[in-house]
Design goal:
The chain contains 7 helices and 14 strands. With 265 residues, the chain is α+β, with helices and mostly antiparallel strands. The chain has 2 domains: 3-141, 2-Layer Sandwich (Fructose-1,6-Bisphosphatase, Chain A, domain 1), CATH 3.30.540; 150-263, D-Maltodextrin-Binding Protein, domain 2. A hairpin with a 6-residue loop joins strand 1 (31-33) and strand 2 (40-42). The structure holds adenosine-2'-monophosphate and calcium ion.
């Protein structure tokens, strides 16, 4: 498999998709809701996913595709090469703010992360990594992550912790929020993972995300020495929804032990 070719091709497609999204800012969006009134999708999310699928099928017809908007394949295994695509991560931000969203694209081989790209379209910043070759913002290398303590940390999370349907008691989070230097919520899991990768925040916790939300971010964060698990400290399952806990080295172990009770809740 020529991974350099896939990497170059993926970057080019992500930039093209970004141009399409920028052009859409002057159009009137068609907005629909999916699983609930606040779970939104626009015609642009669908167009961009279909754009990627057309390109991938043309050049790599044997690859499989998992996309948020459902135009890809229905996967029951991660065998072979799988593209995991979120055409717009942070759709609510895209609709309300025209910023704070990203394209997220991860390429996996037999369940192992190979290439991750997260494109912050508005800032024209492409975060990318290929396994074992470092991570970059555009052409600039991102330095490896350093250890830190809870009291010096900014933790990204969101207030949907208090929603009943998550089955995770939000009270678990109160001591962590009190002890941390600060908390932030950005509304795009892909960007929040990039913020951990670049040290702008020190950890990110979320209760329920889908594989396309964290596929690219996992590759980028792990490439820099960060840790990516669910909230019980277990490996992520790329075929189902997962909770997510991403943090700098050292900090991940500390939070896991002192605040998340080693997953025993
Ligand atoms: P999306 O914008 O692609 O839907 C917001 O906190 C983050 O969580 C975004 O990355 C958003 O992705 C994701 N998200 C929002 N609602 C979700 C849901 N019901 N299931 C999984 N992920 C969700
Ligand atoms: Ca999305």
């Amino acid at each position: 498999m020529n991974w350099d070719h896939i990497y170059a091709q993926a970057k080019q497609w992500v930039q093209e998709a970004g141009n399409k999204i920028r052009l859409s800012f002057d159009e009137i969006l068609t907005i629909q809701s999916k699983t609930n009134p606040n779970d939104l999708v626009t015609n642009i999310d669908k167009d961009i996913e279909q754009f990627f699928i057309r390109k991938i099928r043309e050049v790599y017809p044997e690859h499989k595709i998992m996309g948020e908007e459902g135009f890809g394949d229905k996967l029951v295994s991660l065998d072979g090469i799988v593209w995991m695509i979120d055409p717009i991560d942070g759709t609510m931000n895209f609709i309300h703010q025209q910023r704070n969203f990203a394209i997220s694209l991860g390429v996996y081989e037999n369940g192992v992360g190979k290439i991750g790209l997260i494109y912050d379209v508005v800032h024209d910043e492409l975060y990318h990594a290929s396994c074992g070759n470092g991570a970059f913002i555009n052409e600039k290398p991102i330095p490896a992550l350093k250890e830190t303590t809870v009291k010096e940390s900014i933790i990204a999370l969101n207030a949907t912790w208090v929603m009943e349907n998550h089955r995770i008691d939000h009270k678990l989070m109160i001591p962590l929020v009190k002890d941390a230097r600060g908390t932030r919520s950005y509304g795009s899991a892909a960007l929040e993972m990039v913020f951990v990768a670049t040290g702008r925040v020190d950890a990110y916790l979320s209760m329920r995300l889908s594989p396309w939300d964290f596929a690219a971010g996992t590759i980028i964060v792990e490439e820099l020495g960060g840790l990516v698990t669910n909230l019980r400290g277990e490996k992520l399952n790329f075929l189902t929804q997962n909770s997510l806990f991403v943090a700098k080295p050292g900090l991940h172990q500390t939070i896991m032990k002192d605040y998340l009770k080693d997953g025993k809740w």
